[in-house]
Write a structure and sequence with these properties.
alpha/beta; Rossmann fold; 2 domains; seven-stranded parallel beta sheet; 13 helices; 13 strands; 41% helix
Length: 382
């Protein structure tokens, strides 16, 4: 019998408070779904939350059924639930009664008691973090057990680049036909640059400052070039993820040596502020040696801002030659050298600007949603 209405579940705990990483990806997917009234004829989306349902306007669309997963008959004020209780026990119980066609797990892990057809968003990050001593043991164990379980038992794995797909095949031994590559998207802004709320020129870093993104080395590289660019600042947007925390202290030390507040750190900004920062930056530094995709450099390019990134297979897959690339991301001297080129090499700047639409046209949120829905349809009807 044909399925008339496809019932899709999406695990949404990540968007309750955060706007980075997977939360940004899920928000963009839901926003694009909400913009398409025609989807209501074929799909119903069940969204699952742990602690609260965010007050995002797009969530009011009738295509979404919002579920706050709680212990039955127990008020949430009596028993605040942990992520583990929510994700591994309460959510699978709730799914048993929902009888969905497909469930999308966005937190890199598959609970063991799920019998619905499943899609799991998975990247090499989960494998890396499960073996890293920079995060608490309980998180390492969770990734090692439940990400491995996802690799073995999920109906489909969603990857976000061909490079990431190859990594997953290598570390988890997943068959190629169980991995769907679904590139992320980027919002293409108005062509005109917004008025800057920062009076001086600046370069920019956006994202969670994990060690693999080499913010420490980028700050030290800026210190080297700062005397040669007296009207240039460095704005850092995002939380410090080093263990122990080092960014605030390092910024204070560099500013003291430079004799003024040349580096400004903001842990979080509104989306409209972020758009202004992207729009007016001279360059974006995001020199990451381990990513499944990495949105900030692509978002920067959309605003006409030159990305400075690590030279690796993923960067080549996404950008081709449309970025300034650092061959040795651990080298403060080379980061400084490439940053100077990004600020002064007008011929290279022109080529990147001329080719940016060719890059950006491959990465749209509409296409991301289309590929997701196509995968869901094939699973629901298969």
């Amino acid at each position: 019998m044909a399925i008339l209405m496809i019932r899709i579940g999406i695990e949404c705990e990540s968007i309750e408070q955060d706007s980075w990483g997977i939360a940004r990806i899920i928000n963009k997917l839901l926003e694009d779904i909400a913009r398409r009234p025609e989807l209501q004829k074929e799909f119903k989306f069940f969204l699952y939350f742990k602690s609260k349902i965010p007050n995002y306007p797009f969530l009011n669309n009738p295509i979404f059924v919002k579920r706050l997963v709680r212990v039955p008959l127990v008020p949430k004020t009596w028993l605040p639930i942990s992520f583990s209780l929510y994700y591994y026990i309460l959510l699978p119980i709730r799914l048993w009664f929902e009888r969905l066609d497909v469930m999308y797990f966005t937190n890199y892990m598959l609970p063991p008691l799920v019998f619905t057809k499943s899609i799991v968003f998975l990247t090499y990050d989960a494998y890396y973090e499960s073996r890293s001593k920079n995060i608490p043991l309980r998180y390492r164990l969770a990734y090692r057990i439940f990400s491995t379980w996802a690799a073995k038992r999920a109906t489909q794995i969603m990857s976000i680049s061909e490079f990431s797909k190859q990594e997953l095949q290598n570390v988890y031994g997943i068959n190629s036909d169980r991995i769907t590559v679904n590139y992320l998207g980027v919002d293409v802004p108005n062509r005109s640059r917004a008025a800057s709320h920062h009076a001086r020129d600046y370069i920019l870093f956006v994202g969670q400052a994990f060690p693999r993104r080499h913010l420490k080395e980028s700050l030290l590289a800026f210190e080297k070039i700062a005397p040669h660019f007296p009207n240039l600042d460095f704005i850092v947007v995002g939380p410090d993820k080093y263990s122990p925390l080092i960014i605030q202290t390092l910024i204070k030390e560099i500013n003291a040596r430079l004799g003024s507040e040349r580096i400004i750190h903001k842990e979080r900004v509104r989306d409209d502020e972020l758009a202004q920062y992207y729009s007016n930056a001279k360059a974006l530094m995001y020199i990451s040696t381990k990513e499944a995709f990495g949105l900030p450099p692509l978002e920067a390019l959309a605003y006409g801002t030159y990305p400075i990134i690590a030279d690796n297979p993923l960067s080549r897959e996404i950008f081709g030659e449309s970025a300034f690339m650092v061959k040795e991301p651990e080298s403060v001297f080379q980061i400084a050298e490439v940053t100077v080129a990004a600020l002064t090499d007008s011929a290279r700047q022109y080529r990147i600007t001329a080719n940016k639409d060719e890059v950006l046209n491959k990465f749209t949120w509409q296409a991301h949603t289309d590929r997701f829905l196509k995968l869901v349809q094939s699973m629901a009807h298969g």
